[in-house]
Amino acid sequence: MAQEERETILKKVEKEPEYKGGMEQFYVDVNSKIHYPIISRIKRAQGNVFVQFVVNKEGKLEDVKVVKGIEKRCDQVAADAVKSTSGKWIPGEEDGKPVKVRMVLPLTFNLNAKKAVE
Fold first, then answer.
1. What's the CATH number where 47 sits?
2. How many domains does the chain have?
3. pLDDT attached to residue 30
4. Whose C-alpha in 9, 28, 41, 78 is 20 to 30 A from the C-alpha of 86?
5. Domain limits at 95?
């Protein structure tokens, strides 16, 4: 039973995982790691890339993947940028104990924006 509890991944918890510095800092950090692929710009690919990941009990990311994308190059860039934030998270909690939590966050690729991702 203890092994089964350790492997449980929750979607809703008493205390959600937090990015060190807040979500605004998360998007600043992710944006600094993103380049808008030239081929994607030529193809006029834009929109939201939804990246799913698990924040583990140590604040590291696991199982990072795109669950809804716009174009394979943008999707890969978004997933890699989110992976770069591993270890910068405060784990979620349930009953006062750190737990694994699954999250999904959107990254918006906009051809008209000054930054690669908003």
1. 3.30.1150
2. 1
3. 95
4. 41
5. 2-109
